[in-house]
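Structure tokens please, single chain.
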Amino acid sequence: MEENKKKALLFLITDFLKIGLYAYGGPAAVAYIFEHFKTKRKLDENRLKQGLALTQVSPGPIGVNFASFLGYELLGVEGAILAPLFFIIPTTLVVLLLTSIYKVYRNNTIFLKFLSHTYPVIDAIILNASILFIKPYVIKRDFRSLAIGFFSFVALTLLKLHPLYVVVTCGILGLIFFKKTETTKGINNGNTIDKKRILLGLVGISLLTLLILSLRLINENLSEIGIVFYKISSISFGGGFGALPLIIHEVTENKNWLDIKTMMDGIILGSVTPGPVISTSTFIGFLVGGLLGSLVATVYAYFVSVMIFNIVVGLQSYISNSESYQKFIVGATSAFQGLLVFTFFKVSTSTDHSLTNLFIFFVSLILLYYKKASPLIIVLVSSTLIFLGVLLNII
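Here you go.
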């Protein structure tokens, strides 16, 4: 029995290390993980679908939460922690390497010119994410969700409310205006609760909270990094891109740790590495607090939402029947329409709108939206061409 557990543990670690190395593309990566564990590890397809459905009603990166779900299914509590950990190790190491190089060359004239022409690509990626997020609401003529999204945008731009308050307010609006939803239809697993899973989530959240309090006594800067990503990880519905507006607001406005251009450099690095775009947290942590800062930012950016997700899975039978919870989540998720559009306008204002940059922006947007090109491919190809253009003094 012990030998079988060791073998299962080895499979789990190697599976997620491999997936973490080439898990590009968000939904595409999740689809690959789903297929891999259905065919290679013979997990029940209906159970996999239940887990995937639950990631839609929980905060945090969908792929990382799904990894925790699969880890628990295979190895219990141990697997629920190790699966997301080994899933994010490759992208964390790659981001650390790239950030170290960036820190050395960030003031180089050629490097600065190169970066100035890559910003339109990031603008296009964020606008495309906004369009794809809003499009289903338009197709379904879901005017309530669209109205909440518009309210979110107005609250951010005119009222200048904090994104956290906007998301919570939109969740409350969902409670008021939405009828019963089918967000978690089909995930009911009887009327039992998974006490071990709930305990894992509660203990995990408690330990992460205690760590922040302890850090405040030792190093206040590290504690602040942890608090920022604790908040973001707790409320970032809508996957990795759902976290971007929250990260940008906290880092560039609330804390003034980085300017918007440096933040965009981080998004570029997060886009060319495997894993979710929230890997930008490692970049921010490194610049603000060094190696320990990157570790704290990474842990809190991923594992707060992982622990919340395990509580949600443990309570799945109640959540699937909870009309109030579903309506709140639909309202909160709708808020990210406004947050993403607001983020696009915010980052695009820092871009130099030269003819060259406008050309790069529109070509990138067309390839992303109409040709369904991967953001990774767009970033890699455009970065290569821009770098050659800068070196040859063509642009």
